[in-house]
Amino acid sequence: MIQNTKILLKQLASRLSLALVAAVGFCMSVSAENKVSMDNLNIKSGETKTVAVFLDNSDAISTLQMDIKLPSGLLFKNNLTRNEARLDRDSHTIYMDHLKFDQESRSNIYRLTILSSDLSNIVGNSGAVVYFDVEANSSLIETRDIVLTNIVGSSSEKDEETGFTVKYELEDYTASVSPNIGQLFFTDDSLSVKTDGTSKKVDVSLINYVKVRGLQAVVTLPEGLSFETKDNGRPRFEYSDRLPQNATISSNITEDGKLHLAISDLTGGTIEEKEDTTVLFSFYVKASEALAEISDITLSEVVISDNSDHGIEVHGTSTVKIYNSFIAYYTPANDSVQGLRARYEAAVEKINTEATNVKDSAIVVNAVQEVATRIEDLQKSVNEAYANETLATVYDEVLAPVVEIDTAIVDMVEMVLDYQQKVTANEEAYTRLTADIAAVQAKLDAAKTTIETDYADVAEQFTADIAALQEDIDSISNEVKDLYDEVKLTAESQIDATAIEAGIEKVLADAKKAHEGSSIAGVKGPEGAELLGIYTVSGKRVAAPLKGQVNIFKYSDGTVKKFYMK
What we know:
Structural class: alpha+beta
């Protein structure tokens, strides 16, 4: 049954081929807007890959046929599948048949047929229509061509003039297939280089699926970058352990500045297979001030020789991005630091102008110094990272404090100006409150003088009361002083001396009453004479009359009076 199906398909494909090439019943049209193509292929020996046949069509196409020439070393693996999005199973049949082996081109020719059973058009205007698998063998030792030729398509639509089905002849298309025996490439995607004459190492890695006997390549440097050379004038190379002991790197720098290099081993040593990224060799470069901010070093024209001395071209170019570290990193980083310095200096000037009362205080001096230290630490970090060539990799990390320092500068100014307002309010409140305290103190001093002068006979009785009032005044004064020292006084700050003032009034009243109630209040001296003192009969002076004995009163005019105090 399977064999019969194959025979039927072959017969169907054969009939289609005859129909497509026959001129009868078709209106011929050549359209450059309809195109069949295939991607270039890079494949290892023994590897199987799926390739796609693409159709880009501006015209409606229902049936398509082409011959595919697969070069020697590339085999069709009989796994033909459709793109379901473009070819409906209900309406399209796909088939790929081996026609012949072409001796001249050393190619196997296959015929690919896409046949519509109900004249349905291929869906869409672009993309793959079919896929098939190919396998490379060891005879694929160079880049060869896959050719799509004899491409013919037809449409279900009829030509308006002839009434015939429209036929399209499409242009041939050639894709390349290259043996993938390895890849020579720059290890790093990017490097930063200083322009101070410091050399920079550039690593080159090799992934190879076969043993490699030698290779050659061309290195191109951008303007402003040059190869570091040894004393003999030759470029300086560093050999890795992957290279055999007798492998050497020979090189030549041409007039256009390109480095042509070749690796070989006269003793026949080979580079063993390795499928992960490992450094093969390195060279060194130096930058001048002419180096652009961003440029490229390219590695091209790579040819690798396998163990059978087949020179196999490796397609493509490897590129490493070169950043002028001074322009790309140090300059913007330093500009950020200098910007901070400028904003810091403006902030200090504002403080010196608008906060004259507090600019020299410890809290302000310390705050200003703290910000200055953070800026200096940032500058030091930038300089160190540039010096040790890590600025490119840690750029964001190094400059992370910029935003924080910017915020600290703003906060510093706000804090100082707020502190200035607080200090001013504190000074004004302290002046006002100390005046209030002094007024209360004056009242107490006046009361004390009055008692000691006018009520001397009873003054001793009120010494403790006056001392207590003085202690209350001192307590308020000390509390105000403490708040002043802590800069906590404000325009709303007040002292409450009501109780003290009431106490002063009371002690005066009590002293007067005591004086008037004493028995000596009625002992009058001569008019205008002042009481000089009170004495006992033994001549001892006392502060007040003693009860139960005779008291002697002496006056300023010499008068002496005796009085018995009950």
